[in-house]
Amino acid sequence: MFKTKLAALAAVCIAYFTIFSVNAQTPNTSGNNSAQKTNFSFSLKDAAKTSAGVYFKDGTLLRTLWSGLPYAAGKHIEQWDGLDDIGNLAPDSAYDIKVLSNNVQYEWEGARIGNTSTALTGSTKLRLFEPVRGIAITGNTAYFAGGYNEGWPGQFKVSLSDPNSKTWIGRMKSTDQGSDYVATDGNYVYWGGYDPLENMATPETFVFATQVTNDAQVNFQKGVPATMEWGGTYASTISYMHAANAIITGLAVQKQGSYLFVARGNLNQLQVINKKSGQLIQTLSFSNIKKCVIDQEDNLWIGYDLKVEKFKINTNGTLTSTGVKINNSHMAALAISPDNKTLLLSDMNSQQVKAYNNYDGSFLWSLGDMGGYLTDASVTDRKFYWKDVRDEKLTYLTYLPDGTFYVGDVGNVRTQHYKANGTFIDRIMFLQNVYNTSVDKANPKRIFSDFLEFEVDYSIPMGANNGSWKLVKNWGANFGAKYDQFNKILNITTLKNGKTYGLVRIQDNYYLVELVEGGVLRYTDIIFKSRTFMIADGTKITNPGTVLGIPCALLKYKLLGYNSKNDPIWSDNAELLAVSPPVTAKDPVPWEGFRGDVLSESGNVIFFDYTRSVNGHSSGYHLGAIRNGDNKWLWKTARSTDLTYSGPFPADGSFDNGNGVVAHGAGGPALISGNNIFWGYHGEFWKQSQTNKWNHVDANTGLFVGQFGVLTSDHQ
Length: 716
Known about the structure:
Mean pLDDT: 91
Strand order of the largest sheet: 11-12-13-15-14
Radius of gyration: 29 Å
Number of strands: 52
Largest sheet: 5 strands, antiparallel
Number of helices: 1
Low-confidence stretches: 1-16
Structural class: mainly beta
């Protein structure tokens, strides 16, 4: 959540930056071809981290001498060898040597906004790649099914006395079963799902079980092994199928009785399995069977064929209808209260929880505002996000032993906790995979994570449940079906007309949308090319493209006003913001467009290349600056490591091209606050995992200030 603290951090940096400037003698006064070494000195009042560079008298960086090295208090004498950054002899001239010292402290808080975890970082922090799929409870322990979880288990558990601290269940650093369903009889926990990285035309689907006492996998007498495409092998699975249309759609287990029930809606079948041996007892036919749940008397409720019906389970595993039925064709989850009086049902059509009498099926009450988020993006504790214009979400309902219940508000990535009468208690929340974060350029209290909008109170220390952040909007409900999943709403700013706008990527274009207060996303008639974005005052910035041997330009178009729909109107006449010299493979130019900001407070135009070296480019520098209106590099930094580099994450602000990182998943955005640049490094497949690292650079000198963030291994 570093973005939310940039303004405060910038103030800290100003207080702690000290830049010494030392005149250097001309390194090559005789005109010969040998470099002349130059000694220089600087003094530190206190011990500090330092970076140093050699500059022409106009402020242009010639050579970075060192980055992020600690020095003790006192006087220090160092030497410049007279060479530039690539080892060439520096031209005959006068130079300044600048030393930046600082004691900036970074407080890493991880993903605190939108996360209710007790711990800031570490293995107990709540996190999954996808939203929670289901929860099963026995005693004081809740078991969470997490779907596909890249590189980590798809299952974890929490104590009901501390539901915001997790314990993984499964193999670490392995993409194994995607658990969509979970059920427990108090002895075993049954997990139903699939191999998430196999060909989904013929998915490998199955159930495995873990013991409540120690989380060890259960060996069934009739179990069979299942090997994951990118993970390990489950030694003993049941209800195993490797066939088309076999995805599991429901899971339930008797507590006193002998049977486990596995529904597969696309096959119109319900498997009845001995829960201890794993033997298949019956395969029953039910049209379009969905969810199922066992009540406290070991009866089975099944959602199928436009209704929900209650069955008595016979000793041989067959079913006999009790005659109790509920006509609801939009059921998406079921739960039974501990006193056996109430059946909860999630109605996907109305997006409400509905309660029925477990014995006669009569309607009791409903919870939730009709329609969810399809007409209003405002988030409340009485609205559920279970479907949008793109699809329906896999949700869940779970009763706790005390008669309270959980509702899976999956579109808002949170588990809502209610009293038996529907009164809100609290929530468990953590964000899923996030592909875009933004801050309203006109209002830094508005923080965006993909579709979600948070309101942040900077006067309160960032915490899980202290009011420092609040989820206030979800703009995803009417987000069109043809969007790019990796680019949600970005480049958000509130203009002087009081309207908030953002960009939505659809193929190679960006569509200007309005975030309508009291409503939903409104698509305007304005379409940008992919290399276009807005800055804080509404000025439109474009980059025609990047080609080797051709200067890379940034053009600006002034905001002139607004049309009859109150949408922005820009000048047709472009003004030059900055242009680079003819592009070389080593220049920090945007090969795949812009991520983040471009203008520092002092007017420097910041260029950032977030891609790994590929196809003859990105092999040199990745961050650079050109003065506003100028056409030469003021400084270049964030030099590439070699493609074959294998080692620790670079601590000096270098850009890692090695360690197995992929071309399009290396860097993140470059964000600017004042004259402070923070560039991110995502590191997709870095050492077969990922990173979340950030480097801090001074926008005026290009000198490295510091680094913060974590590696995936830090979260074990």
